Amino acid sequence: MAVKGLGITVTPEEMLSRALAGDRLSLAKMLSMVERGGESASEVAHVSYRSLLRAQTIGITGAPGAGKSTLVEKLVTVARAGGKDQVAVIAVDPTSPFSGGAILGDRIRMQSHAGDDGVFIRSMASRGHLGGLSIAVPESMRLLEAAGMDPVIIETVGVGQVEIEVASATDTTVVVVNPGWGDSIQANKAGILEIADILVVNKADRPGAREAVRDLEQMLGMAHDAYELRQGIWRPPVLKTIASNGEGVDELWSAIERHGAYLSDSGEYAARRRQRAERGLDLVLEEAISQQVDKLRGCEAYAQLVDAMESGQSDPYEAAERLIHEASQPVLH
Ligand SMILES: Nc1nc2c(ncn2[C@@H]2O[C@H](COP(=O)(O)OP(=O)(O)OP(=O)(O)O)[C@@H](O)[C@H]2O)c(=O)[nH]1
Ligand SMILES: [Mg+2]
């Protein structure tokens, strides 16, 4: 299989080795193939899943406007200064109508890394993906790892189920909330505290930061007390940051690195990866099966069987069985 463009044919293997050598255009093209889904995504997966390169993947999630992009930008600076030479960021642009201007905002905020060869930033629209995001994001992360990026950071707005799922498909999940009555409670209700490995109260320059930290610790305490006697269990730390001036970001980066070390030492890294591999396979299976269903709906026998059901000669169980049976018969020419 090969990709054609400008009269030149490049195989996905070749594209990946170019990406590994630092060719950003090849990497960008491969990410577009992943986003397109179907055949072109499967060509990329064919090479990216055979790479044994691994990275720490970090999900940053939270309500619209919580300061995630500002925080990511500062985190990238700290990670780069700390010796990470290939950092990737995927910003999933929200479907939420409340944060419409996010694409432009992200681009502007990430400008400080524009001239840095060691930083790769990509926006991915969740609009129009119709759930395909749950497949496209993990496959993009896998590709970025295979291209030698580490860490791979992904920013999502934790509003919908898909976004939460995407955020939790990372090794380390950071949940960002703001001070003020109700924000942490909302996060709790939406189920995003459950996925947190690290909690951040950003905009700590505003009133109520200390109370927010206390509330979160209480909520976490209730969930984690049961496990506390067991050794080696990670208890999510609650940190304060002011992303706009960088306060607390060093501490956040240290906590992320500590969590990475915990995952490796405890064996949880491998366990989570395995779980994710299963999830990835399930999603592709579901997609393939739903395409099979569409095909069955389109065949001649389908309408006949519905007629038979209507005239009292069949039922949906028998009809489905017959359709599946007929579809599995080899066609004789
Ligand atoms: N006062 C204060 N403002 C902040 C802080 N961090 C971010 N902001 C501001 O909050 C606004 C939203 O920040 P973003 O980084 O775009 O937030 P976001 O969570 O990425 O937003 P969406 O991607 O649209 O959900 C911007 O105007 C930031 O300058 C902070 O620590 N304190
Ligand atoms: Mg943002």
Classify the fold: give the CATH topology of the largest domain. Answer: Rossmann fold
How much of the sequence lies in strands comes to 5-15%
Bound molecules: guanosine-5'-triphosphate, magnesium ion
Tally of individual domains? 2
**CATH architecture identity of the largest domain:** 3-Layer(aba) Sandwich
CATH superfamily of the largest domain: P-loop containing nucleotide triphosphate hydrolases
Main-sheet strand order equals: 5-4-6-3-7-8-9
Helix/strand order, N-terminal first: EEHHHEHEHEHEHEHEHEHHHH
**Unreliably modeled segments:** 96-105
Largest β sheet strand count, sense and barrel closure: 7 strands, parallel
Query: Mean of residue pLDDT?
Result: 86
| Assembly category | single chain
Through-space gap between termini: 29 Å
